[in-house]
User: Fold this.
Amino acid sequence: MGYQDLWQRTLFGLVTISSDKVQSERIIHQALGLIDSFPDIERTKTTVEWL
Assistant:
């Protein structure tokens, strides 16, 4: 989604669609946990929006 021209930096988005907000939160947190499980990746800023 962003920073395509910068080395060692990226911006990406996660999307989930559900009629249950709790289920959507669970999926997003699982995805963030997967990202955090890689020691070479440093997640510096996370923004969550509910529409």
